[in-house]
Design brief:
single chain; about 100 residues; alpha+beta; two-stranded antiparallel ribbon
């Protein structure tokens, strides 16, 4: 009887490239771009959740929620901050 174990090591081989990728001069820039992309996707999810929690009308999402929410990225510490601003809104904005 013979036992044969096979493994697909393509992902493991990628770890060999990590030191080379980290040593590149634009590595930090690429990390920051990844943070921005993730932050934008998260901001969209937050905007949709806020619109649902506020129970705004169909036009209220693009007219009130989106313009009053900002995403600010900081390359120094690779962070993305989502801020909501705005004061009161007309009662017609809500369902």
């Amino acid at each position: 009887m013979q036992v044969v174990v096979t493994k697909k090591l393509t992902n493991f081989v990628r770890f060999q490239d990590i030191p080379r990728l980290i040593s590149r001069p634009n590595f930090r820039l690429e990390l920051h771009r990844g943070v921005i992309d993730a932050g934008r996707k998260t901001r969209t999810q937050v905007q949709r959740a806020v619109a649902q929690q506020m129970a705004v009308t169909a036009g209220g999402y693009r007219g009130y929620v989106v313009p009053n929410m900002r995403g600010i990225s900081k390359p120094s510490d690779l962070s993305f901050t989502i801020r909501g601003t705005g004061k009161g809104s007309p009662i017609e904005t809500y369902k």
